[in-house]
Amino acid sequence: MDSSQEYRCPVYSSSSIDAEKRAQLLERPVKSSKDILALVSPILQSVREGGDDGLRSCVVKFDRCVPAEDASFPLTLQAPFSDELAKIDPKVKEAIDVAYKNIKAFHGAQMERESEPIRVETMPGVVCQRFARPIGSVGLYIPGGTAVLPSTALMLGVPAQVAGCKNITLATPPRPDGSISPEIIYIAQLVGAKTVVKAGGAHAIAAMAYGTKSVPKADKLYGPGNQFVTAAKMMVAMDSGAKCAIDVPAGPSEVLIIADKTADPVLVASDLLGQQEHGLDSQSVLVTIDCADSYVEAVNAAVEQQAQALPRAEILRKSLSQSFILQTRSVEEAFEFSNDYAPEHLLLYLKDAAKTVELVENAGSVFVGPWSPVACGDYASGTNHTLPTVGYAKQYSGVSTSSFLKHFTSQELSSDGLKNLGPYVEILADVEQLGAHKASVSLRLDKIKREDL
């Protein structure tokens, strides 16, 4: 077989696939949860029971960091971080600064909506309020297995900073020499992080969830990652001993593009490849609307040409076969498939694209029109790129400033308020046969009547 054929997406037509095949296309190319959990569980146990020693052994084994074999090798960096460790190219610094400014502006606007409590007098003398407070200690996972991702440090660190979280910890895989990318350190300085953990994968999640002598325990974990990282997050969230929440199930990256014949095949191909290059378990999907076979062939030809010229061509060669192109006949049919798929990234490459946003029901983030590549949201437009994947956009939202806040409510009743509401509470307590609940109201009503309060 011609090796160039490996740089192509399989093509299907909605008119020729049955319900079973359609259901298969909606599935992601990931291992079963049972298999992943079995692999992750002993890693979590090693860190939970072994603390820093368990973490160190995992850093050596999984991060392939030979210097960590030495017990004197520090597993963390503590603020204030050395400027020498954060020394980066001026052009990179400028790009990070622009991204930081935009992300902070968008997430700061979200915080403005949370700053004032909601106050409602539900009936005379009964006042209910809702307050927002920052989560005290947060753990931010920054992937680094196949690529250094300082953008994720921004996407998680900025809203944590805006929300006012007091203790921000970053975890990211160390380089072979045991160092951390200077871009990550620079961003850690920008967002006010206190600790950087030199670890990746499930063991980094475990260290932040359970805490060790050198790694502060987090109240909530954030960040994307591979299937193992996602499984580790979900497992610690279910462990009552960890007392640790998570943001969203953010696993392997994915994009779905809805395109009509106005879309440039070359640009469409670039967006397909942009997500596919993240890793072997990533997926890119193109859904065309009333496009000829020749258009689809033009897209695949552009994919082939661009892929072979990219630095991560080998990953693309192995992974493109699990992506696909689906030809549909109408806008309605295309959006129905997209909403069932519930993509992490949804790119609308359509005529009058803005008018079609109202058709979107399930998506992590939407990129509207030909001049809105997913890469801009990934890096610097201002929206967050930590988004639900593998269909979880049906239930979850992406990370935002509110992800770093918890909310509590209050209610304050005057004596008149209790006289208004109390009798109804007594009736409902009787229905549920909860006598102590009823008595807590009845005794107060008696006191108010007796003392003429």
From TrEMBL:
Q: Which cofactor does it need?
A: Zn(2+)
Q: Tell me, what does this protein do in biology? A: Catalyzes the sequential NAD-dependent oxidations of L-histidinol to L-histidinaldehyde and then to L-histidine.
According to the record, the segments passing through the membrane are none
> Which GO cellular component terms, listed alphabetically, does the Swiss-Prot or TrEMBL entry include?
cytosol
The enzyme's main class, written as a single word, is oxidoreductase
Q: What's the record's note on cofactor binding?
A: Binds 1 zinc ion per subunit.
According to UniProt, the reaction catalysed is: L-histidinol + 2 NAD(+) + H2O = L-histidine + 2 NADH + 3 H(+)
Q: What is this protein called?
A: Histidinol dehydrogenase
Copy the pathway line from the protein's UniProt record.
Amino-acid biosynthesis; L-histidine biosynthesis; L-histidine from 5-phospho-alpha-D-ribose 1-diphosphate: step 9/9
**Which biological process, per GO, is one annotated for this protein?**
L-histidine biosynthetic process
Q: Does the keyword Cell membrane apply?
A: no
The family annotation for this protein states: Belongs to the histidinol dehydrogenase family.
| One of the record's GO molecular function terms | NAD binding
Annotated substrate binding lies at: S253, Q275, H278, H345, D378, E432, H437
Q: Which UniProt keywords apply?
A: Amino-acid biosynthesis, Histidine biosynthesis, Metal-binding, NAD, Oxidoreductase, Zinc
Against HAMAP family, the record matches this protein to:
HisD
**Binding-site residues, Zn(2+):** Q275, H278, D378, H437
Residue positions of the active site: E344 (proton acceptor), H345 (proton acceptor)
EC code: 1.1.1.23
